[in-house]
Amino acid sequence: MLFPENPARKPQLWTELKAQLAEHPVCLLVANGTGNPTAKASLMSEQTASALLSRLQNAHVCRISANRGCAISPHFAGQVAGDVLLITELVLLPSSDREVSPNFLTRELETAAINLFCTEKYLSEVRAPLSLASWKMSDAEITQESDGLHFKKVFLR
Q1: Is the pLDDT of residue 157 over 70?
Q2: In the CATH hierarchy, which fold is given to the domain comprising 3-153?
């Protein structure tokens, strides 16, 4: 079962993530606050992986997803301004080919938004700098704005 975990509480996840980045092609859909919904998966160089890990560690909020202690995607981090979190990093591990399907991306974004709303109770909105068609989900209202997707909490108020 997938659990996006706070690595501050489980520091061994940093080691798991570092190994995943060295061994598996990953898609960096959001990097340094810039989205690329058509990013292709690739193996990261040691330097690129180190830079990503540093950005994740320095983010206000970071989650490394895990199943039985092994890193699996999505991994995400963001910066907080008031009650809004902007996703600045989003790393996905595609299941088959080197591309992330729109359906897979929407499921992973839903996972990130729901996890953040449930664990960071003060958040009312999560933003992702990605241009995608809006869709419906029961736990958040999703709109496409000029700066990307906005997930507004509609539960646990």
Answers
A1: no
A2: Aminopeptidase (3.40.630)
